[in-house]
């Protein structure tokens, strides 16, 4: 069977946009903007997007289309010495499936939003404590909040109704990772539903994915537009917008601001994660990947910026209702999605409607990114073993087994101590430093081994446009140096993982975390050593052979190289 291709180009655009525009655009970028100088944060963000995000995105997208291969075989055939890059990405992608539990939380909240009274607004439920405080009643004045000890310099107490719903109803949090406790079966059912949704989105390959993205990629924009219009019409909304964009130029002198901007670019653009390469590999060879990449990167950054208006207008309304400053309502990550925003929508008229809109948007945003990761894993295995895996129903069976095993393992994440397991996997297994190592290796493979000039030639042959000279310099010098500097900063500034409430993890968990972190990065030197040992000749001859593409795999012939050393013959699976 031949390798699949997109039926229509718009399916590819929607799939790529859905993969790029994810939860981080809604719950992380606006917070970083506010935290790091408001509108001033856009300067380091745009600079680093131009010097690292866009070049890496274009490189991975073009390589996928050029080689027509998945993540592992793409790097295996382009630069056999760095074949381990593909395996490192596979390990990281496997760890990243833990984010399906975020969709399970969102689904749990969505189902709870259909109640006549939102369950996180009252203290009369079985899970509430005697000290529970209701802080989400519509039309409540600042005097009412003062009665509960909430003022302009203090956040809502930990025993608020919305906090107790999150910690005691959804998570049933235990005291630590040592106390896993029992399985939360309702949350487990939500997790199973999310895995089934992901499976049926991609089980038939791009034929099914191409149809699903018409909903999963477009619907979040509809919901975001609705929430934006509603948010900007609420009292106090513009207070939030001012906090979002108020410039503080002194922040530009702080290294941490630039590091966080670069980190956001990596996560937001989805580089060094294999999905860009995979989705691009289903394009026709003559697709204009250069123009597509530039427009998709612009769309991603614009979405992040606009999402900030929707989020901060609603947080501004929340601060206005409570009579507190913005500092006391601004959250990032799960704190925004499952505490701050549910509390805010409960203060609006018809709160169920806005809660449903918000959580459907979260589910759709996460679903696109997650089934893109599953497609990366599936296509890599199929391209690695094409003779066996391209037989009828082999893909479906492989995905069924992978999803079933992953679901069974992730039952740990829906136990009473599951949130601590999630934090451990998120902090170490999906560490940003691992992605930086992968990105650095990719730049070395393309910029130096394959050659930046040849990469530009390949893009011109496919798209009819030669990339800007800046991209060539980025692939060879600027992007790898930025990745290296960021990695050093990560290593120097690394701090032990603690929970949101300051809970210290036991010593053995840190050891397990570092094993997970190194399990991906070590794939690169391990495969490099293995390939060196399997290649004949002196060490210099072996390195020269392994730094060249497999003959015929990329359209580059031996005559394109001046040295007389032989090409690496295509390695059998």
UniProtKB/TrEMBL annotation:
GO cellular component, one term: plasma membrane
Name assigned to this protein: Transporter
Residues where Na(+) binds: 18, 21, 25, 268, 300, 365, 368-369
Family: Belongs to the sodium:neurotransmitter symporter (SNF) (TC 2.A.22) family.
Membrane topology recorded in Swiss-Prot or TrEMBL: Multi-pass membrane protein
Pfam families documented for this protein: SNF
UniProtKB keywords: Disulfide bond, Membrane, Metal-binding, Sodium, Symport, Transmembrane, Transmembrane helix, Transport
InterPro entries: Na/ntran_symport (IPR000175), SNS_sf (IPR037272)
Cysteines engaged in disulfide bonds, as pairs: 123-132
Family annotation (CDD domains): SLC6sbd-TauT-like
Species of origin: Gadus morhua (Atlantic cod)
